[in-house]
Design a protein that fits this description.
The protein is an alpha/beta fold and 685 residues long. It contains 19 helices and 31 strands. The strands form seven sheets. Strands 1, 2, 3, 4, 5, 6, 7, 8, 9, 10 and 13 form an eleven-stranded antiparallel β-sheet that branches.
Length: 685
Amino acid sequence: MHGVAFAALAVFALAGTSSAFPVADGPHHLQARAAVTLPADALDGQCVSLQLFDGSNNLGYAQRSGSGYAFNTDVTKATAFRLEATALGRYEILDGTAHTYISVFNWLTPGDAYGTRSDFSFTLSGSRYVIKVLETGQLLGKNIASWGAGSSSSTVALATATGCGNADDIDPNVSGTITAGVQNGKIVGLIDMHAHITAGTAFGGQMHCGDAWSTGGVANALTSKCDGHKSLTIGAILENLLGGTSITNSNEHGWKDFTDWPTYNSVLHEQAYFRGIERAYKSGVRVINALLVANRVICNIFPYKDLSCDEMEQIRTQAKYLNDMQDYIDAQSGGAGKGWFRIAKTPADVRSIAAANKLAVLIGVENSELFNCFTGDGAPSCTTSTIDAGLTELVNLGVSGLFPIHKFDNAFGGTKMDPDTTGAFINIGNVKSAGHWFAVENCTSADAVDQPKIGSNADIVNVLALGIIGAPNIDAPTYPTGPVCNTRGLTDLGKYLINAMMKRGLVIHVDHMSYKSASQTLDILEAAKYPGIISEHSWSTYPIINRVLGVGGVVASYPYVPADFIANWKKIKGMSNGASANVAFGLGSDVNGLAVQPPPRADAATNPFKYPFTTLAGTTAGQYVMGTRTMDLNKDGVAEYGLYADWLADNINIAGADGPAFKSALMSSAEAYVSMWEKSRTWKA
């Protein structure tokens, strides 16, 4: 993993020629440099010299010598190291651009990339630190005559130094003071009700290229090493099917030039790096609903994986990933609890986080076989006890809401179908999950007229010809050409699930339900006067959305291009129950959710969005720069989550005279969601 790994001869020569001799301990060792004795989780970005001790014996300062490190009693010759946080209390020790690591010969040597041998835990012990190698558990100290694996009494004193370089990073490029998070007792800011910032560990761990964060920093998170996505591989074929990217021109260049991705339609590549999320937060996004996502069938299609395809295991893995992400951002921000990214498990948490002017992150679940309750071959028995145990586990994870049904028919009810080629792909998946092709009928209610056209039999043949998914052993029915509805509604278990969610104050995500399932769900909620329901990313019919608003729920829209996003807001607020949408209207980005993000406006060349700009939060933002690539909304669209800062401001400009009202609705959406959630948690049957 390291370019200088196994430099055995050089390190051994260093050991034989080093002038490293123990020297007397005493006050001279600081030589007017200030000692660093910060808490072990607060050392990120510190530029320090390292003075090593074995018990009370002062070994001297670590000094670069060839491909290793000797000891020197002269602090002015000590090497300056930058500490770069990898987690709370853990750091890389950077020597310029080199990543120091413990070699197999137990000496410290500079390398060219992050690895677990270059990741060190720090524990403060008096005025010194015990530094331990993450992978091996060895303490850093004296190894023969050089810096390497020491003894159980090895400690290190830190003192301020100068001359350290900067670690690779991305600047959100937003300046100024963010609008206060709470004004007159109400949260001020936008909610993204539908984001998948944990997708890096979804679908077996390798179908999605890149991560929202990494212990190894941006170079590891936004890697160029996704071989399963290169031209003509299954990753390139899948991304073409889902996003329309090229199958034959995918060089996978991520960090640092990003010549291949991200693009607005690179749906199998990371589009929400944490610095982009930070840019959006500093520009008005106050709450993100982070949906843990899983699909066993899609996971099994992709041949490369290092994590389970079991959907509930995927959910557990992503919950840990999200908590680790919070810890990582804390570590990058000065210590535990100090980061701007805070997980909220209750409405009170959100209000407290907003009052501190930080980003509140909710936890939701969107998977196709909730509690592994699918109905195809090999399906486990799913009972009311399964539901109760599953909901208890999710509530303990901090989950605030979930999708009862998603993409496939499951034990709880029928799903809303996708159109065209994607719909054909999902239909084949439905056979593998549910054990049957979608059963459809002409929509019997005028309320259901805006259902999609299901993928045709020709589309099914074309998808199977790609060779990425095996043909079902059941012949497909002949489908009509017009809009159709799924014949399936809620099952008895589905009705039990809805009622069980209500008892726990959970938010019901109605999108992706068939018209029958959604209508029956709202029948239950309307009878019970339960407000905890949302339609967040334009996967419900307008009549269903109107009923969601009528019962006290909240709505958001998939982003589209600005003109369509604004038109959707106007249509919804004009409904009979739409007055609340005039007051509050959210975003449902579906970032990292196999969904294309907003492309550049068609008229961007003649009517460009201009930089710098004032964000919805009153801050000033310049262009977002990732590595050597400067992002431009006019050319890139929303290729990365940070560009939602630009896109939202563009929407207000495009809205013209409606701009102030639209901005008010967007910036009131977080309060509307939290208020709805509060009412759901205090609801009584």
